C-alpha cells in the first residue's frame, strides 16, 4: 500500500522526507514499474482475446449470411390461377422447389404463357430485347405463306444465298433446285439458311422488299420491340422479346403449312443426283411425351441456344420461349423442366 502511495508522486515524497535513503526510493520506483508493466500486459492480453472473439463471431455471421443467401435465391414468377393478376410476384422462402427449378434453368430468358387466358405461368428476364437467331425464320415463313406465291415453283440456290457473314455450312450446294414448298420446309424444319435466303430473294422486290414486309408484319401484330434486317437470323440485329415472340407464334399457328413443316421429324429431298435426309433441329419433336404445334430453334453466338414452341401441357395450349441458353442441349432440358413445373402447379391448383 505504501509503495502505491509513494509511487504516485516520488518527487514529493523525497522532498518532504529527507531522512529516507535514495535506495529506498529506488526500490519503490522499481516495484511500481514492475507492477505497472504486469498490469498493462494483462490488460492488453484481455483486449486481444476480446478482439479475437469478436472477429470469430463476425466471420461466423458473415459465413452464415452467405450460406442463407445462397440457399434462398430471389425468384420471380406469377400465379398459375386463371383469375390471378399477371403482375410479377416474389416467392417467399417457403417455395424451395420452384426456386430450385429457377436456379436449374440454363436459359437467360424464359417465358411460359397459357394461351387460353393469357396467364403468365413463368417468366425470367421476359422484357429484355435479345437477338433471336433463326427464330426469325418463323416471320420469313409467315411472309411467304401470306404472299400466296405458287408453292410448286422451282427456286435455285445461287452464290447470293451463301452465308458470307458467319460462313455457316449448308448441304444445299450452289445450283440446287427445289420447289418453293421444299425450300420453306427445310428452312423451318432444318433451319437451312440458304433456303430461307432463296425464299426472300425470290419475293417480289427481292430482299429489301421482303425485309420491309417482315417489319411491317411485326408492327401489325403488335410486336413493338421486334426488328429484322434479313430473313435468316444470321444477323444479331434481328431482335425481339419473349412477349413479342408469343404474338408471332399465335400468327404462324394459323398457317397449317407452317404447323406441318415445323413439326415434321425428317424430310428427304433430291440435292443434285442424290437424295438427302434432313432432320428437325428440335429433338423434342421425336419424343412421345410432347404434343408440339409450332416449333423453331436458333443459334448464333450473340443469341445463344434458342427455342420457341407452341405446345399442349395437360390439355392446355402453352407458349414456351427460351433464349440465350448455354450448352447444345440445355434449351431442351429447360423446356422439360418448365413443363414439369407447369404440370405440378396444375395438379396443385386442382387439389
Automatic annotation (TrEMBL):
GO MF entry, a single one: serine-type D-Ala-D-Ala carboxypeptidase activity
Gene3D superfamilies per UniProt: DD-peptidase/beta-lactamase superfamily
List of residues binding substrate: 296
Region (Disordered): 13-42
Active-site positions on this chain: 134 (acyl-ester intermediate), 137 (proton acceptor), 191
Residue stretches of biased makeup (Low complexity): 13-25
Keyword terms: Cell shape, Cell wall biogenesis/degradation, Hydrolase, Peptidoglycan synthesis, Signal
One GO process term, biological-process aspect: proteolysis
Record Pfam families: Peptidase_S11 (PF00768)
Residue ranges constituting the Peptidase S11 D-alanyl-D-alanine carboxypeptidase A N-terminal domain according to the UniProt record: 102-325
Biased composition (Basic residues): 26-42
Domain of life from the UniProt record: Bacteria
Similarity remark: Belongs to the peptidase S11 family.
Name of this chain's protein: Murein-DD-endopeptidase
Organism: Paralcaligenes ureilyticus
Organism lineage: Bacteria, Pseudomonadati, Pseudomonadota, Betaproteobacteria, Burkholderiales
Amino acid at each position: 500500500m505504501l509503495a502505491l502511495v509513494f509511487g504516485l508522486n516520488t518527487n514529493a515524497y523525497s522532498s518532504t522526507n529527507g531522512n529516507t535513503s535514495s535506495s529506498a526510493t529506488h526500490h519503490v520506483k522499481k516495484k511500481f514499474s514492475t507492477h505497472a508493466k504486469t498490469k498493462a500486459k494483462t490488460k492488453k492480453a484481455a483486449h486481444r482475446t476480446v478482439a479475437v472473439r469478436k472477429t470469430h463471431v463476425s466471420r461466423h455471421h458473415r459465413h452464415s449470411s452467405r450460406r442463407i443467401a445462397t440457399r434462398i435465391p430471389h425468384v420471380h414468377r406469377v400465379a398459375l390461377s386463371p383469375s390471378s393478376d399477371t403482375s410479377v410476384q416474389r416467392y417467399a422462402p417457403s417455395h424451395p422447389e420452384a426456386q430450385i427449378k429457377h436456379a436449374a434453368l440454363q436459359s437467360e430468358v424464359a417465358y411460359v404463357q397459357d394461351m387460353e387466358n393469357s396467364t403468365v405461368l413463368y417468366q425470367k428476364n421476359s422484357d429484355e430485347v435479345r437477338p433471336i437467331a433463326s427464330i426469325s425464320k418463323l416471320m420469313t415463313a409467315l411472309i411467304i405463306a401470306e404472299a400466296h406465291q405458287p408453292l410448286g415453283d422451282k427456286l435455285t440456290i445461287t452464290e447470293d444465298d451463301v452465308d458470307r457473314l458467319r460462313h455457316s455450312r449448308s448441304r444445299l450446294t450452289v445450283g440446287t433446285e427445289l420447289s418453293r414448298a421444299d425450300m420453306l420446309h427445310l428452312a423451318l424444319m432444318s433451319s437451312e439458311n440458304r433456303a430461307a435466303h432463296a425464299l426472300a430473294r425470290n419475293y417480289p422486290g427481292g430482299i429489301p422488299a421482303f425485309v420491309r414486309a417482315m417489319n411491317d408484319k411485326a408492327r401489325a401484330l403488335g410486336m413493338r420491340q421486334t426488328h429484322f434486317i434479313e430473313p435468316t437470323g444470321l444477323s444479331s440485329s434481328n431482335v425481339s422479346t419473349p412477349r413479342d415472340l408469343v404474338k408471332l407464334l399465335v400468327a404462324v399457328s394459323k398457317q397449317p403449312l407452317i404447323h406441318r413443316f415445323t413439326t415434321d421429324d425428317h424430310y428427304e429431298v433430291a440435292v443434285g443426283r442424290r437424295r438427302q435426309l434432313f432432320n428437325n433441329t428440335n429433338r423434342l419433336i421425336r419424343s412421345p411425351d410432347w404434343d408440339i404445334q409450332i416449333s423453331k430453334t436458333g443459334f448464333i453466338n450473340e443469341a445463344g441456344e434458342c427455342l420457341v414452341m407452341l405446345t399442349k401441357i395437360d390439355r392446355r395450349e402453352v407458349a414456351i420461349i427460351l433464349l440465350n441458353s448455354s450448352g447444345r442441349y440445355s434449351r431442351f432440358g429447360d423446356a422439360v423442366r418448365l413443363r414439369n413445373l407447369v404440370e405440378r402447379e396444375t395438379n396443385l391448383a386442382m387439389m
